[in-house]
Write a structure and sequence with these properties.
mainly alpha; 0% strand; 88 residues
Length: 88
């Protein structure tokens, strides 16, 4: 029941995956990132390639954590608003 309410009234991870990650803008930016990543991988050698891969993984992880933090903040704000409305 709670999951149904969340899916109906709040932006969930499923919503992000379904609508944001499949948007035209997101796909275009993702494609640009992919091409640049591949170009750099071909040019870099040895330790540089390893360092770049670590950097790339870190940037991806930061992006995930940031998205998750925004999601949590939105959920908290939504629940706070809903509880204030119910209390009135």
């Amino acid at each position: 029941m709670l999951k149904d309410l969340l899916n109906k009234y709040f932006i969930t991870e499923e919503y992000i995956s379904e609508y944001i990650e499949k948007s035209k803008d997101y796909r275009e930016l993702n494609e640009i990132e992919y091409k640049l990543h591949n170009k750099l991988e071909k040019v870099l050698k040895g330790g540089q390639a390893e360092l770049f891969e670590k950097y790339s993984d870190t940037v991806s992880e930061i992006g995930y954590e940031l998205r998750l933090a925004f999601f949590k903040a939105g959920m908290k704000a939504g629940f706070r608003l809903a509880s204030e409305l119910i209390a009135e």
